[in-house]
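Worked example 3 (structure in, sequence out).
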């Protein structure tokens, strides 16, 4: 037995017998809808005991053959009562109750066949949108989204034979746009007679709007909302007057088995009895709330307001304005504060409950629509939706007002003696000041940062497995320049990686896959692999090399993870290094440090302190030994994010490289998680040592080499463990000799040389050397040089480091350099232990005016600055930065102004 499809005795809504008229001259007038709602009466289904409330037939089956009911999936007396009642209040001859509003839509959409076309609104409920997208992607159905507030926009999409369904909502949720249901139904029927006009009437309920009366063919409601009214059940109802449609609907419900359960049918029936009284109260308060917000100057969407553009249409097709409204604050952040600040208004999705609710559609009910589509459909990110309940209206207004005050959306104006709205530009200004926490920095600031590479003296590879590494910064650096963009794009320019440049539309990044981390939260130890995969398959697909994609991935991943809701500033990030990339000198760590710092600054997660202006004649002497002005807490935050970047580039890094890059100097580093006390400890005495770094120019991948050692440890655990133990002893010994004040310089150097040789032999045993590195080691060890050399960093190519004794003469060094170069190696004489991360001070007073700056290559800047004519400060450093030769880069950077160091 299927749900009741009574085609013979068409029962229309207002046919509940009305009382006999008092006078034979007066005709019987139909009952009002509120009476109908409250009166559950089905003359065909009288209760055997006369129970005044419909009983719950909590049974799956019914005994006997040929009875009215046999199986609850197909029909149940409690549900029949409900369906009869719903039909009565909806001007319908057929009603069906199913398990949710989406189930109702699903039943309706199953009428579609491949090739059919659907016309739907562009401001639909997110769930509707999702199901429509499914039907489009899997059912071969074409969906046109149009602005249904303008009936003429529908006409061009109507195809006389293909348009099978027109899906409307009025008012729409959450923008409260109105579709002229009557006019659209007429236009559609004239042009595509077979098309079915379907209306989602959830926002109104049958009490306020009955679209079947205006020519719609099928109406559905999420009965979870007003019909039930208490948020204690999920249900959907479908009503129609056309018998053949009713048959199809009944068939699908029976076949799919999503009819409403007896208990929920009972609850819903109970809820419907109070529909009118609830909505009367909710509407009255909504009107007060809308008027209040409107009077404060907010843009309010509510069809009851005089300035609603479709007010007249709405009045014609409905009996009231409903109890949902929305308004814009001008700032997503402010909106979030308001939503989080109310007490009576509960934060919740859905609506229609007796309790008042507040939400931000873009982050809640409509989050399933991607941001770009939301923007295209004009859904403001700062929109707040209010669903008014039955609480006391004064209480509700008080609560809302307090939240508006606390959020800074309104302020008391003593002249007017009332609260007034804080204008959006004032909010923006406040936000900018708050964000930067420093007066003189422009809202959209260019940030120039730099970080050093490193040389590992002892303990590379072993450090990944918990051994102490000893490493120092080198005076070769990576520079990163972040320049704001105002076109909604982010771009990267990597001069050192085939001059790679690429840009992305920020809104098209997979924001749905990212849960940004709030300022007080750290990134978890593991990378967000699903996001990485999504990025590699999407925005980063088809890039020429993995170097390009992983370096880009660092920027996109960090940007997305660091983003704050509603703040997605466009930017370009250009990186250039005076370091060889991929040579074991920590180019990846210095790149990671620059990227993390620039993005943390862009997102205002960190601030730079304001310093007193330079005291001297205007020219500042800047060096990497410069002012230590970046507080340790900021440095730690940067180091945590640089480590995340390193994980992207390296897989399983120890963290020593980025720590050196951020903190500079020389340090002993132990990775977390090996039962030993992890941490970073500064080592003195390194700076006085001289090292020669020689790049073998053999390319290799740190990621693979680290993974290779990891595999060896699994295959030959005893051998590798003994090597790790031996390397730990070397690191401990190196620290001891470096810290020993009693030791003569000569003994120190001899001890270090021996430790270098020993460490190298263990690295050879770990399998990470290379014939080219061995050639460098042999050359430097041979007479007359007699020097000690080891590979440094991941090995497999890359660089070797050679300790240079104090008595090693310049001439001999020249010979060695010449010999190494002749063998096609690149030797660098470098100083170690210099400053870590630096940020060029953003304050104008710390910048050297362009006219006063030395031309790169010129040793002394001009004594008397030229006239400051047109240009005082650079608008952007980008053109110079990108074209400067590598040999001039660091001098040029230093001349720009005051650098602040960790
Ligand atoms: N200046 C740079 N610009 C862009 N990416 C860089 C830069 N320097 C390093 N990288 C990234 O780091 C990777 C090099 O890492 P790695 O093999 O560990 O070399 P290194 O030993 O120099 O750190 C590069 O492939 C690239 O992805
Ligand atoms: C091999 C290793 O110890 C150092 C890597 O140095 P580089 O990437 O070769 O500069 C790995 C690490 O510590 O993360």
């Amino acid at each position: 037995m299927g749900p009741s499809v009574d085609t013979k005795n068409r029962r229309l809504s207002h046919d509940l017998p009305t009382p006999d008229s008092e006078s034979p001259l007066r005709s019987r007038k139909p009952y009002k809808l509120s009476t109908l709602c409250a009166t559950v009466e089905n003359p065909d289904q009288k209760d055997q005991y006369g129970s005044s409330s419909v009983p719950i037939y909590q049974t799956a089956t019914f005994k006997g053959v040929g009875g009215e009911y046999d199986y609850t999936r197909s029909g149940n007396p409690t549900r029949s009562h409900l369906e009869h009642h719903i039909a009565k209040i909806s001007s319908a001859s057929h009603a069906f109750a199913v398990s949710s509003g989406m189930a109702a839509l699903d039943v309706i959409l199953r009428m579609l066949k491949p090739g059919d076309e659907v016309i739907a609104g562009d401001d639909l409920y997110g769930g509707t949108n999702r199901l429509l997208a499914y039907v489009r992607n899997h059912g071969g159905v074409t969906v046109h989204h149009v602005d249904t507030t303008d009936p003429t926009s529908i006409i061009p999409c109507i195809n006389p034979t293909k348009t099978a369904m027109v899906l409307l909502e009025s008012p729409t949720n959450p923008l409260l746009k109105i579709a002229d249901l009557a006019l659209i139904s007429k236009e559609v029927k004239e042009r595509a007679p077979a098309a079915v006009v379907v209306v989602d009437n959830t926002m109104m309920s049958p009490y306020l709007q009955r679209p079947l009366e205006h020519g719609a063919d099928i109406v559905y409601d999420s009965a979870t909302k007003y019909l039930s009214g208490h948020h204690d059940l999920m249900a959907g109802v479908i009503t129609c007057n056309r018998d053949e449609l009713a048959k199809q609907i009944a068939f699908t419900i029976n076949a799919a088995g999503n009819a409403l359960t007896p208990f929920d049918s009972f609850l819903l029936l109970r809820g419907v009895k109070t529909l009118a009284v609830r909505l009367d109260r909710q509407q009255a308060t909504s009107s007060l709330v809308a008027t209040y917000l409107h009077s404060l100057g907010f843009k309010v969407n509510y069809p009851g307001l005089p300035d609603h553009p479709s007010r007249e249409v709405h009045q014609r097709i409905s009996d009231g304005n409903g109890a949902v409204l929305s308004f814009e604050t001008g700032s997503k952040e402010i909106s979030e504060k308001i939503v989080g600040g109310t007490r009576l208004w509960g934060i919740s999705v859905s609506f229609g409950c007796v309790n008042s609710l507040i939400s931000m559609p873009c982050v809640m009910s409509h989050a399933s629509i991607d941001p770009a589509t939301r923007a295209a459909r004009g859904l403001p990110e700062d929109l707040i939706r209010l669903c008014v309940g039955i609480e006391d209206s004064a209480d509700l207004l008080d609560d809302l007002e307090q939240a508006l005050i606390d959020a800074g959306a309104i302020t008391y104006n003593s002249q007017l003696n009332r609260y007034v709205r804080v204008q959006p530009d004032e909010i923006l200004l406040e936000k900018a000041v708050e964000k930067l926490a420093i007066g003189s920095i422009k809202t959209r600031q260019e940030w120039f940062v730099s970080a050093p590479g490193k040389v590992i003296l002892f303990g590379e590879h072993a450090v990944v497995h918990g051994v102490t590494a000893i490493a120092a910064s080198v005076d070769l650096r990576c520079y990163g320049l972040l320049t704001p963009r105002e076109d909604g794009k982010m771009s990267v320019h990597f001069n050192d990686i085939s001059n790679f440049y690429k840009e992305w539309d920020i809104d098209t990044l997979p924001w749905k896959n990212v849960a940004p981390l709030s300022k007080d939260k750290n990134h978890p130890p593991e990378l967000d692999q699903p996001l990485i995969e999504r990025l590699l398959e999407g925005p980063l697909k088809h890039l020429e090399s993995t170097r390009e994609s992983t370096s880009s991935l660092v920027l996109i991943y960090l940007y997305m993870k660091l983003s704050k809701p509603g703040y997605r500033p466009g930017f370009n990030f250009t990186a250039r290094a005076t370091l060889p990339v991929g040579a074991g000198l920590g180019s990846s760590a210095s790149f990671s440090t620059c990227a993390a710092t620039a993005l943390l600054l862009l997102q205002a997660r960190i601030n730079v302190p304001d310093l007193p202006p330079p005291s001297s004649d205007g020219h500042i002497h800047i060096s990497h030994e410069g002012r230590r002005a970046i507080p340790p807490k900021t440095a730690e935050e940067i180091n945590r994010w640089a480590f995340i970047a390193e994980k992207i580039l390296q897989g399983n890094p120890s963290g020593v490289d980025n720590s050196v890059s951020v903190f500079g100097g020389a340090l002993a580093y132990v990775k977390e998680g090996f039962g030993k006390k992890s941490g970073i400890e500064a080592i003195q005495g390194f700076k006085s040592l001289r090292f020669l770094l020689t790049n073998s120019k053999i390319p290799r991948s740190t990621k693979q080499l680290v993974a290779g050692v990891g595999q060896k440890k699994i295959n030959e655990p005893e051998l590798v463990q003994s090597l790790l133990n031996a390397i730990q002893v070397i690191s401990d010994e190196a620290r001891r000799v470096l810290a020993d004040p009693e030791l003569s310089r000569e003994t120190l150097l001899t001890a270090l040389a021996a430790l270098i040789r020993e460490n190298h032999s263990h690295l050879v045993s770990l399998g990470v050397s290379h014939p080219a590195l061995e050639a460098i080691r042999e050359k430097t060890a041979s007479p007359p040089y007699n020097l000690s050399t080891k590979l440094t960093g991941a090995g497999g190519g890359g660089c070797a480091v050679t300790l240079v004794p104090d008595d090693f003469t310049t001439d001999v060094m020249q010979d060695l350099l010449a010999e190494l170069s002749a063998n096609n190696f690149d030797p660098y004489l470098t100083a170690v232990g210099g400053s870590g991360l630096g940020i060029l001070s953003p304050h104008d007073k710390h910048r050297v005016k362009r006219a006063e700056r030395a031309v790169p290559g010129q040793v002394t800047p001009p004594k008397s600055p030229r006239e400051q004519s047109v240009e005082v400060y650079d608008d952007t450093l980008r053109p110079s930065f990108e074209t400067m030769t590598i040999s001039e880069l660091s001098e040029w950077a230093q001349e720009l102004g005051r650098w602040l160091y960790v």
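Notes: The longest helix spans residues 717-739. Residues 1-15, 433-442, 612-626, 857-873 have pLDDT under 50 and may be disordered.
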